[in-house]
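task queued by scheduler; priority normal; single chain, no ligands, no partner chains; default sampling; output format set to structure tokens
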Amino acid sequence: MSSPPPRPVELRPRPTDALLAAALFACSFPGSAITFPGQEPAVPWWPGVLLAAVASAALVPRRTRPRRTVLVTLGCAVAASALGYLLTVLLLAPLMLALYSLAAATDRRTANTFTFVAVVLLIGTGLLAGPPGEPLVLKLVGPAAWLLLPTSLGTVNRLRAAYLDAVRARAEHAERTREEEARRRVTEERMRIARDLHDVVAHHLVLANLQAGAVARQLPARPQDAARLTAELAGTTASALRELKATVGLLRQDGDDHTDRHTDTHTDRHTVRAMTPAPGLAQLPQLAASFRGAGLEVTVSTEGEPRPLTAGADLTAYRIVQEALTNVTKHAAVGTADVRLVYADDRLALSVTDDGGKRPAAVGGGGYGLIGMRERARSAGGRVRTGHRPDGGFEVVTELPLQGGTTNESHPA
């Protein structure tokens, strides 16, 4: 199992590093005078003090140069052992701190290599030039135990710090992911509202424009028909205002109110959660009747046994039919259009056709209306195909998944 990457070391020593070096020198000073009970010092005290001072001074840059610090302190410890000093924990304290710092700042292999070399050198030097009368077990076990301990502690500290860094990084990543998901959902909601606004405005304004033109034409000669068309025009504008109010009302909801006041959270995420019921295929007869005032007769036919759609797919089907019929009214010089619903297996095939002539290229290949149709169909797990019919006219064919169907993946439009 590979060890985590080493933590970055600091760029300059801390003021406490000098104080710690001074404290270790104070401990190493009496260590140079320690001998076995009943024995006189075999060497003078001052070389040990000098080596302790050099080793302690090398600890100051231990955070920025841990390898160099280990080499200097190890050289001082080997020299002290070669001179015949008893290697106690006081004399080895600078080397122990250097090995701890190396293990905490580098990888496990580097720390273990330096520690193994230090143990071998100190044991070998002690066996060759150690103080006379020192038990063999102390020459073998003492240096190994005192040097392995700080290396182990430094490795544990490094692994713990790496674990905490990984936990912190995961938490930050999760927070960023939540924020990105929230922004994505806000963007999708804005696009959905924009499509609703386009559908509502385009549909009702086209009908209102046609009805107003018919009123202007028939008012002088046929005042009764003009009065009827005026009433239908008033109904069209009132319906437009209601739908616009319901759609724009979504933009005025804050996050808490939106969650508390709309309980349709178990349905498709594209379901309209306005305070008024969302339209669906059940309102197709009323939708077809609304085009009668604009001079378009719409025939609705159904094949197969009707089955329920998800709330999002039901709204999508209604909006696609609404947009397709609006395009027929705007761009096709015909008086009839056919809406056909075919229920088969796990999908609903929905088509809107007319017998009009050639449409402008922009109508057949682009425009916000057709783009909105494709986006709506993809969001509900379906697809849309639009184009001119071989025998004339234009068609919009949509496939949407039925509720509880087995095919719910998105298809390219």
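post-processing summary
- The chain has a mean pLDDT of 76.
- The chain has twelve helices and five strands.
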